[in-house]
Amino acid sequence: MARLLPLKNDLIFKLTFGDHRYVQIIRAFLTAALDIPADEYEDLQIIDPHLERDSPEDKLGILDVRIQLKDKKLISVEVQVRETPFMAERVAFSTGRNLSRQIAPGESYAKIEKVITIVIADYDMIDADGFYHHIFRLYDPEKRVLLTDAMEIHTLELRKLPEAPGADEREDELLNWLRLIRSEREEEIDMIAAKTPEMEMAVGRLKQLSADERTRMLYEARELYLMDEMARREAAEARGEARGEARGRLEGIAEGETRGKLEMARNLLAEGFPPEVIAKSSGLSLDEIRTLADL
Question: What's the pLDDT tens digit per position in 101-156?
């Protein structure tokens, strides 16, 4: 039997939680995660339930599950397994964009419905404390006044899950969903699956996907894509640090007796002379000339 694919991979998560044929799965998860009346989930619709193409890079590397409720609330659920720079800013931006897309120029703001974003993170996304679930709204903490509930962002951090049961039945179910998403051991997954019919359905879907050769190929391609993205980001950061160090050296030169060398090099660069010629003429190193050209 094939090894189970990880639910916390965003592609596998979408194929499990974002398939309209198994809508009970995402409905049960949202019921546990959000404080929304149960009747609002009656006509739940999964928006864009299929991958747009057979590519792991679908939608610029973000494979979210998008849902619309009975009262037109919009919900986006995504999984992040690797720490992402400016993640908070990106989530705020995407939530605001989903809000603004609801109306065309000239239409009334009264048409806007609530937008909820849920981020399931497999790293410590919020460093301020050890709570696994945070809810962010447009709120004045000093006066304790809510400006509007039009935007709401939930963070669910898998590495902060407590071992103890939840404070009530709903939180206990949410914890079980998150433990299911986090787990990669089949025995533990089967044990959690037995807790509710919806969790059993999710694990059945996961086993179906894990046995499918095409899905495994997409999963492996997706993992390779994410690893390549991380490598590119690390390389860019390394280049930025090296450039920053070189910039610091140039600033030191400028403060000393060689200010004239810098000025000469800038003039020669402006005239289009090759870096090798400028280095020989100014007395600066070739690396310093190249850094100067990038500033």
Answer: 999 888 999 999 999 999 999 999 999 899 999 999 999 999 999 999 999 999 99
Residues with Cβ within 8 Å of 264's Cβ and at least 6 positions away in sequence, in order, are 278, 281, 282
Distance CA 73, CA 149 (A): 11
- Same domain? For 163 and 287 the reply is no
Q: Which domain holds residue 262?
A: 243-294
Distance CA 108, CA 135 (A): 28
Strands (E), the chain: 45-47, 65-68, 74-80, 115-121, 133-140, 145-157
The angle subtended at Cα 207 by Cα 201 and Cα 208, nearest 5°, is 90
Does 231 reside within a domain? no
Q: Is residue 218 part of a domain?
A: no
Cβ 76 vs Cβ 116: under 8 Å = yes
Q: How far apart are CA 107 and CA 111, in angstroms?
A: 8
Q: How many CB atoms lie within 10 A of CB 230?
A: 13
Same domain assignment for residues 269 and 185: no
pTM of the predicted structure, to 2 decimals:
0.76
Q: Are residues 186 and 247 in the same domain?
A: no
Q: Do both 147 and 254 map to the same domain?
A: no
DSSP secondary structure letter of residue 110: G
Pairing of the two strands 145-157 and 115-121: parallel
- Strand partners of residue 218: none
